[in-house]
Amino acid sequence: MNGDYESKSNKGFLFQAKTDEAFVIKILGELLAQRLKFAPFKVTPDGIFLLKMDPKKQQLIEIALEKTNFSPYKCSKPINFSVNTTYFYKMLKCIKKKDGLRLFIHEDDPHNLGICIEQKGEGNKVNTFLKITMTHPEDIQKPEGYDPPIIIQSKQFQKMKNLHSISETMTITSKLNYIKFFCDGGELYSRELVIGEENDEDNAHIKNVYKQTFNTQHITGLAKCAGQSYNVQVFVHEDLGLKIKMKAGSLGEITVYIKSKELIQDEEEERIVQDGEISDLAKNIQLRDEDSEDDENKKQKVPVKKQTKKTK
Fold this sequence. Notes:
Elements (H helix, E strand, L loop, with lengths): L1 H7 L4 E7 L2 H14 L2 E7 L2 E7 L5 E8 L6 E3 L3 E6 H8 L7 E7 L2 E11 L4 E8 L1 E2 L15 E4 H5 L10 E7 L2 E7 L5 E6 L14 E6 H5 L2 H4 L4 E5 L6 E7 L3 E7 L2 H40 L12
Antiparallel strand pairs: 1-5, 1-7, 2-3, 2-6, 3-4, 4-18, 6-10, 7-8, 8-9, 11-16, 12-13, 12-15, 13-14, 16-17, 17-18
Helix pairs in contact: 2-3
Family: Belongs to the PCNA family.
Protein name: Proliferating cell nuclear antigen PCNA N-terminal domain-containing protein
InterPro entries: DNA_clamp_sf, Pr_cel_nuc_antig, Pr_cel_nuc_antig_C, Pr_cel_nuc_antig_N
C-alpha cells in the first residue's frame, strides 16, 4: 500500500486536507460509527461538512470543519460522497494523540478516500484507501428557535459517562443557568449530575421548568467528544429537542440535535392520526368511485318495452 501511495503522491488531488490533530478525527469517526451506518460528507472549497439524521430519525448530527484549520487544504469544487462508518472508524482506530493525518482523493482514483496516518516519533506512515460512494446532498432543515445555551465546562460534561450504566433513560431538568441530568436505577440506586444552582437569585422568579426524558446513550456517548472541547453548550426547547454543541479540537464544531422521548411519542401519535386520515380519505374516494360506477352502469341499462298483442 505504501508503494501505491508513493506512486500517486505526485499526481493531482480532487481533495486534500492535512492536520496534526488526527486524534480529533478519530473521535469523530467513533461518534459516527455509533450513530450512523453511512456518513455523507460534503467537501467544498470552504471545508469538510456533514449533516445527517440517524436511521431512527431521533438524532441529527452536524459536523463543520473549516478549511482554514487544515494545512494544506485543497478542494477546487464540491464533492459529495458517503463512507461506511464502521470501516471508516476501523481505519482510524490505530491513531494516537500526537499523530498527524492526511485525507485525500486523487483525480485518477475518485472512488477511494485516501487516509494517511503519520505516526510521529516513529517516522512511519500508514496508508489505507476506503471505497466511497458519490451521493446527492439531502435537503435537511436544522431546528431553529433556541434560547441562549447553558455553558458546561468540558471536564464536568465528561462526568456524564458515570451515568451510562445506571439506567437506559435519562431525565433532564433545566431552567436558565441550572441543569440536572438524572438516571434512576430503581429502588437500589440512582445518580445525577447537577450544573448550577436550582434556586439561586437568577432562577428564583422562573416558574416554567424544562423537564424531559432521553435515551441515556444519546447523551453520555458525547462525553469523549467533549474531551476535545473547552466547554459544551446545551440548548433546551420542549418542541425542538436538545441541542448539544462543542468544538472539535481546533478543527471546527460538532452539533447534535436529540429528540426527547416525549417529542418522539408526540410525533408518532401525530403520524398515526395522519395515517388514519389518509386511510379514511382513500376509503371515501373508493366509495365515491364505486357509486359513480354504479350510476354509470344504470344509465347504460336501457329498459326493453314489452309489446302487447292487439285483440281483434
